[in-house]
Structure prediction request, 247 residues.
Amino acid sequence: MKILRFLSVTALLSALLSVSAFAAPKSIKVATDATWPPMEMVNSNKQIVGYDIDFLNAVAKEAGVTVEFKNTAWDGIFAGLDSGQYDAIISSVTITEERKAKYDFTDVYTSIGQILVVPKTDKTSKTIADLKGKKVGSQIGTTATMEIKKVDGVDSKTYDEIGLAFEDMAAGRISGVVCDEPVAAHFALQKQEYKEKFKIVGKPFTKEGYGIVVKKGNKELVDLLNKGIKSVKAKKLDAKIHTKWVK
Prediction:
């Protein structure tokens, strides 16, 4: 009986620990690759700023939690979540079926599309297919890279940071860049050194939803963040954030 009672207590404790493994937190650590303006970037004061940062801060306030942001390179950002270095990722992450198989996502908090940027000297290109036989750049591991690789005859060149792709295009080493609409607008229309050199062509050719990423099974955190997202949208705080960052 003592053995059975001990086993029962042990089983109960294990069950309780399992249930509380993903208890709703009072503070969360969140990774972002701050090289993707205007969504996430580092300003002149070395602060992480941008649309996603303001949005998650607003969500956290509505949900009653505090947030600590951790600037993390894109190529290791998911591995860091896997190993528990942070609780979530907000970094312009498109919700895909492949990613959903391994991670949980919040509700969509904003939607974007991929678009093509080319030099102003290019008078003919409107689509990726128009650049067959040429190099087109994108950030590694993004949906932009996937779209480029769908087009036969186009040479996909990937970069750790999207800014490096635009640097290469300015230097004439590649003929186009594919990225999210807000990022394209930032580099092609607003960035002083590029706005006379680049142009956005054609229309967005994907429809993608961004979500906040958490570990698989962390329903408590997903529910908490979704509560905050719903409140932010109900109060139209997202519209104010969009106006601030996406011109």
